[in-house]
Amino acid sequence: MDLIYEQESYKIIGACFEVYNEMGCGFLESVYHECLEMEFEKRSIPFNSREKLKLNYKGITLEKKFEADFVCYNKIIVEVKALEELISQNEAQLLNYLNATNNKLGLLVNFGHHPKLEYKRIVFDKSQKVSPRVKKGRK
Q1: Could you report the per-residue pLDDT of 45-60, keeping only the tens digit for each?
Q2: Are 132 and 122 contacting, i.e. CB atoms less than 8 angstroms apart?
Q3: Helix/strand/coil (H, E, C) string of 58-117?
């Protein structure tokens, strides 16, 4: 299976590892978010923080919007968590973001997991009628 946006996603995950190695677990999500902003800038990873994502219903844009933690490279949604363990609702949230934006790749990153950073790489293709591909990792 070929990885989409392989180089970009490796750079993002590398930045996440750096933040985790420096900060460890136990902080609020907002702390990791701010640290990631600094690390993305340091590594020249293009990103938009807390980007509002438009929703449509039958071709009409809704007033309600999703807010993604990060959109990197204008095509990868990064959702940051600081939980003991990721749950299915976290994946569902990211899948909704991908579905709403037609983006194909999302990274769900959990800084609250001990002793290692937990992340999931979620590939979504709206045209396919199958479940998304989820690849888990801990390092």
Answers
A1: 999 999 998 888 888 9
A2: yes
A3: CCEEEEEEEEEEEEECCCEEEEEECCCCCCHHHHHHHHHHHHHHCCCEEEEEECCCCCCC
Pairing assessment for the beta strands 76-81 and 60-72 based on DSSP bridges: antiparallel
pTM value surpassing 0.85: yes
How many CB atoms lie under 10 A from the CB of residue 38? 12
Residue that the structure tokens 């449509």 belong to: 56
**Residue whose C-alpha is closest to residue 107's, from 47, 60, 55, 57:** 47
Domain boundaries, the chain: 6-138
CA distances 89 to 34, 41, 93, 95, 96, Å, are 23, 30, 6, 10, 10
